[in-house]
Amino acid sequence: MEEDSVSRDANIKYNLEVYLSYICECVDAIHLLQHIDCYSDDQRREISQLAKSNPVGATRKAFDILMQKELPGIFTALLESLQDDYPKIVKLLQGDVVKCDKNYRKIITLFSQSIVREIQPIELLLCLRKYNVLTEEEAEEARADERNFGLTRAAFNIVTNIHRHVEDWFKYFLMSLIEIDCENLAERLDQDLVEKIKAQKRFSSANEEDTFENETRDDIREHVQDDILEVPSSLKIENAPPPDTEADITKLKISNLECHGDQCEQEDSMNIAKNDLKEINNTQLLNVGLEDDDVTVLKQQFRRSNKEIEAVENTDEESPDEADDMDADLDFNDLDKSGSEADDSDDIYAQNIETDLDEITNPEEHEIELRGYQKKLAKKGCEGENVIIMAPTNSGKTKVACQIVLSMFKRCEEQKKKGKAVFVVEREDLAFQQGKVFEEELPSYRTKVVTGDVQQSKDQYLKDYVQRRDVFVVTAQVLLNYLKAKDIGSLDVFDIIVFDECHHTDKKHPYKKIMDNYFEQRLKNAIVKPQIVGLTASIGVGGKLDRNIAFENMKQIAANLDAEVLCIVDDEDDKAEMKGFIKNPDEKIVAVPKRATERFFEDILDAVEKIDTFMMKNPHVTKLEEDDKYMKTISRVPTRNVGKSQFQSWLSGFRHGLSVLKSDNARQILHPCLSYLDQYHIAVMLYNDARIKDALSSLKRFVDKRRQADYNNEADEFLLQLYDDLRSGSYKNEPENPKLLKLKELILETMRGDENARGIIFVKTRALARTLKLWMHETVELKKLNANAYLGKVVSTGEGGMSKHKQRNVLGLFKNGRHKIILATTVAEEGLDIAICNLVIKYEHVTNERARVQCRGRARAPNSKYYVLTEEGSDLIEKEKFNARCETLMQE
Which of 50, 110, 326, 650 minimizes the number of CB atoms within 10 Å of its CB? Predict the structure, then answer.
């Protein structure tokens, strides 16, 4: 038995040597540290630190140390530690046949931008976990990325990890894409395999005993073109002796390279027509020996411009929404000729801060010109105290912050030392905007803008510039990440920290986490710096009218910022001066009646009720096993909530329930129903706030895709017929939406005849912004205003988001006058340097007192108007009145 154990251990070590390059691409170094007890404390620290910057290199180092050990049974222990999370690697170490995934990884690399742009990470995670493609730790990390950085980072996390664990990861990835309604993307990756998966599903419905896994290997070769890795020279653990010498190992590696490298290349014929993959042909996997860090390769591909990727991915089609925005892109280069303030560059990364230099030659003393009230706002901060500056939008708070920072520099110079300032913002677009202010107001000091995208695109990192710049404008998450990684030591490297929109310093916001780090350092080291300054137009009262509660909320924000003084403009003369620069708009709540008849809405509700009945009476649902019976309750449709936020919550619960449902037959019935219910919900929301035409168009786009996909089961047949019945009705005689009629009236009343007029309409969703843009372009009286949407970039353009370049174009053309109206989501509420507006309308969208102050502050032209437009009887009316009272209390 002892000899068998020795032989087993030696064979595992041998196979590890043979496939080490590939195994390092899959196994996480931290996994080895957690499960293999052969590393010293110093080695653990070194490997953990290396894993942050070079995960493959860290794994390689961990294995190198492991292979130098002469501990009996250590490699058997390694094999056992990998059983649960790395079954593919276990097969390799046992000497079994493993499919070569080289071609599939090439496809993922090539199409990485499309994948990241089009998937919904959280939905995809549920499916991938079901197939064990990702571990629970990786799934949780992706969820954390989604919460902290947004959907793009979460999607990128998934893309970099899907190949690590299971042999059929690519097949499961495609199956997961199909399940979350991304079949078009799956087909672009490998249409043949998608067709085979769909065919297998249809076959499985007829005969559940036949499975995809039981097909012959020849069939798999014919349809999927898998590269099967035959391993004639690798060692089966049970019966083969280990190699005798290093020469044997070297000889085997060379043999494998010659034999299987050519074979893999000959079968490189996946569905990527017109793509010769020149960018990544040197990346060889498995027994071909991957030399470069594939994660790095993938990141490089991910960073490539959209034009380069689209030139390869010629199957991608431009969405109607993207086509609508092309007018902005076409004319952007002419902005300067028309007097726009927009930047010349084509990309946000190309925005230059002129003082972003290692050394400024001939620095000139520069005094910041402040108004009287600004000097008083800056006074306490200039004396070195921790303060919150609360003043209205457009009152010049950033300029006040520059004066406080300048005072800090002068104090440091008197003490013969260099000062450091960091200005923290929430979003990247704000970082560049505020960086420009510091460049202009503090030309003698070196300013650096650092954001997540700047680090990725330019390879410029905060830690590398701490000693080379004076002022840093950074996004909160970037600073927080460096603090967590301890890459910049601690906050006391800075002499002052300024938080823009500091009212966010609460709960789990990155601002609050940065300040938690600050307090932790103060307790440990009794530090006296950095000085803390917060800027806000509205600190908020916590949504309460009780004076004591409101005061406590304000005190809590101040305490979170360690602020000693709240600086406001309270002197009457100062208020009068400030009023000369800030024009308060006329305010009005406009309530309009409902449609006289609502036949379309009633027909939608009827369709929803029929779907509910269909699901509840379907035999596959009524006969669910005990573990799945919960779906009978979850799938009951709250019909009267369609179009409301409660229905969206119900859809989320339904979707989650489906993700863990064991019955495939029931899922084939319920999943199409979920998809249609989601679309009917969207249609009702569009009907409520836009036109029947818009609601029907949204439904038609969805159903047309379903028809093209040729889903063929009883649920889809029923649902398609239900939709056809709805379309057969005529709604031409239905009344127009009164809210749109009133919206048109308000726009024309305020903007007619004024060439310099500008307006912002705030809405609650991206879909509504785009829909109202279409309505304005199709309305004769409004068409000449050339409205455009201004949306956030937290989701991909395919999901309704907007790239940074397009955001900047829209704002530039809005200032220039090409767009007289922009339709914006909450992204435009805070901070951005948006042109002076005559008109601000909150269209069926009211949140809290802080947002009210921010939005109203956009209407700062003389004789401007601020409207809240909603339906009669809406709770938004009372909510807006409540927010106004909260604002009054806050000012008191």
Answer: 326
Core vs surface per residue 281-309: b (16+ CB within 10 A) or e:
eebbbbbbbbeebbeebbbebbeeeeeeb
Of 165, 285, 270, 162, whose CA–CA distance to 229 is shortest?
Answer: 285
Helix (H) or strand (E) holding 822: strand 821-824
- Judge whether 820 and 785 are in contact, CB under 8 Å: yes
**What pLDDT does residue 666 have?**
87
Distance between CA 224 and CA 315 in Å, rounded? 20
The tokens for 218 are: 């020849």
Rg of the chain over all Cα atoms, to the nearest angstrom: 31
Which distant-in-sequence residues (6+ apart) come within 8 Å of 811 by Cβ? 342, 790, 832, 833, 834, 835
Structure tokens at 368: 């910041």
Q: Where are the alpha helices (DSSP H) in 817-856?
A: 849-856
499 φ, ψ (degrees, to nearest 5): -100, 115
Residue 886: in which H helix or E strand, if any?
Answer: helix 875-891
pLDDT value of residue 579: 83
Name the one residue in this structure whose structure tokens are 């130098």: 68
Q: What is the rounded distance in angstroms from the CA atom of residue 68 to the CA atom of residue 16?
A: 13
| Alpha helical stretches, state H, 496-644 | 510-525, 547-560, 572-579, 599-617, 619-622, 630-634
54 and 26 Cβ atoms separated by less than 8 Å: no
Q: How many Cα atoms occupy the beta-carbon half-sphere of 441 within 13 Å?
A: 22
Distance CA 720, CA 446 (A): 63
Q: Which two tokens stand for residue 684?
A: 């009702």
Task: Measure the CA–CA gap between 173 and 177, rounded to whole angstroms.
Answer: 6
Task: Tell me the two tokens of residue 76.
Answer: 């058997």
Averages of pLDDT over runs of 10 residues in the chain (892 residues) are 62 86 90 84 88 89 86 84 88 84 85 84 85 85 79 87 91 89 85 82 52 36 34 41 42 36 34 32 32 41 37 34 36 34 38 79 80 94 94 88 94 91 88 89 92 78 88 92 82 93 88 91 76 89 73 87 91 88 85 92 94 91 82 85 88 84 87 92 94 94 83 85 89 91 94 87 89 94 92 54 73 86 77 71 83 73 87 88 77 65
- β-pair partners for 664: none
Which one-letter DSSP state was computed for residue 585? P
What is the residue whose two structure tokens read 């056809």?
A: 724
Residues 395, 578 contacting (CB under 8 angstroms)? yes
* Cis status, amide bond into 638, omega within 30 of 0: no
DSSP letter at 835 equals: P
| C-beta of residue 512 within 8 angstroms of C-beta of residue 483 | no
Q: Residue 412's pLDDT is what?
A: 93
Nearest CA among 50, 59, 70, 65 for reference residue 26? 59
Q: Residue 830 has what pLDDT?
A: 57
pLDDT at position 801 is 59
Residue 3 makes CB contacts below 8 A (sequence gap 6+) with: none
Half-sphere exposure (Cβ direction) of 682: Cα atoms closer than 13 Å? 19
Give the H/E segment covering residue 421. strand 421-425
Residue 746: per-residue pLDDT: 94
Give phi and psi for 425, each to the nearest 5: -125, 170
Cα–Cα distance for residue pair 353/432, rounded to 1 Å: 8
Residues 6+ apart with CB under 8 A from 860: 393, 394, 582, 583, 585, 836, 837
Contacting residues for 728 by C-beta, under 8 A, at least 6 apart? none
Element (H, E) at 653: helix 645-659
Residue 449 main-chain phi, psi, to 5 deg: -95, 125
Residues in contact with 814: Cβ distance below 8 Å, sequence separation at least 6, in sequence order: 758, 788, 790, 822, 834, 835
Q: Are 348 and 428 in contact (CB under 8 A)?
A: yes
Instruction: Provide the β-strand partners of residue 865.
Output: 586, 839
